Predict the structure.
Amino acid sequence: MSTDASYRLALAAMILGASCAPSSADQTGFASMHNQARVGNKMCMTDHYHYGSGTGATKAAAQKSAISSWSSFTDFEYGSDWARFSKAVGKRISCSSSSSGYDCQVEARPCR
């Protein structure tokens, strides 16, 4: 077999192999450093909370900003599988009014 034909065959095998590979979950691997347990159909951290804070002209805008802050850091640390605030447990949200609107803080244990 010629070198050109060998190259084409190898290239075809790589492309085919890549297209058949299973997709992996978006996780950084750092979540395994925390204790985890099932909560319903989710896997959650048992004693590790993440925090977020935000401000906004309205209470709803400040809460959205705080949740976005929580999600961004959780995504950075553990990957997007863990970063959905809607899946988190042990949620606490507190807000206070300020001269420019509202300040909110959230905390929750990440789940996937």
Notes: Residues 39 and 80 are 19 Å apart (CA to CA). DSSP finds two helices and five strands in the chain. The helical segments are 3-20, 59-78.
